[in-house]
Amino acid sequence: MFTALVMFCALQTPELPPNCIILKDTYGPYRTEENCNIRTSQMIREITADEVVMRGLAQSLGGAQLYYASKCEKEGEQA
Question: Which of 19 and 40 is assigned the larger pLDDT?
Answer without folding.
Answer: 40
